[in-house]
Amino acid sequence: MVRDSNRKEKKDREDSSEFSDRLVAINRVSKTVKGGKRFGFAALVVVGDQRGRVGFGKGKAKEVPEAIRKATDQAKTQTLRVPLKEGRTLHHDVRGRHGAGLVVMRTAPPGTGIIAGGPMRAVFEMLGIQDVVAKSIGSQNPYNMVRATIDGLKKEVSPRIIARRRGKKLSAIVVKDEEQKAVSYTHLRAHETKANLV
Question: With CB atoms 3.0 to 4.6 Å apart as the test, which of 46, 116, 147, 194 could cross-link to 134 if both were Cys?
Fold first, then answer.
C-alpha cells in the first residue's frame, strides 16, 4: 500500500515537471444564495510539454490559487497529442469550431513565428509550435477560442498516418518541394501561353 502511494507520488512529480502551464483567463463569478452573494473565481489554464502534447482545463474556487490548481489538474488529465511537421508547424491547414467560435490555422515556413492572438497563442506555445498563422473569425470568448483551437488540432493528420491508411508508401503521398515547384512552373507556363494565344 505504501509502495503504491510512493509510485503515484513519483509519477505525479514526473508529470508536473514534464508539463508547463499558462493561465489564459480568470473571472470573478458569483452565486446568489439566501443570505446574499457568494463570490469565487473561475480559471482557464492550458498545459503542454512543448513537444506535441497539449490540454486545457477549467476550475472554480473561492481563492485564485486554488482555482488555478484545479484547472491545471484537469488540463493534465485530458491532454491531446498532435503530430507536428519538423517539430515546428502544422502538416496542413485546418479549421476548428466550437459553438460560435471558429478558428483557421495555417502551416507556415520557418521564421514566421506564431501569428495568433490571446488564447490561441497560449495553446500553440504550450504545444511547441514555432511557426503558424491563425485567425479567430467567430466568438472572442476565451473558452470558445481554446475549445475551437483544440477541435482544429484534433483534425491534424500526419502524412505517415495517411500513407498507412491508404496502404501506400510515404514517398507516394508526400510531394517534394522541387516537384511541387516544377508542377507550379509548368502550370504557370501553360497559363501564360494560353493567355498569349487569346
Answer: 116
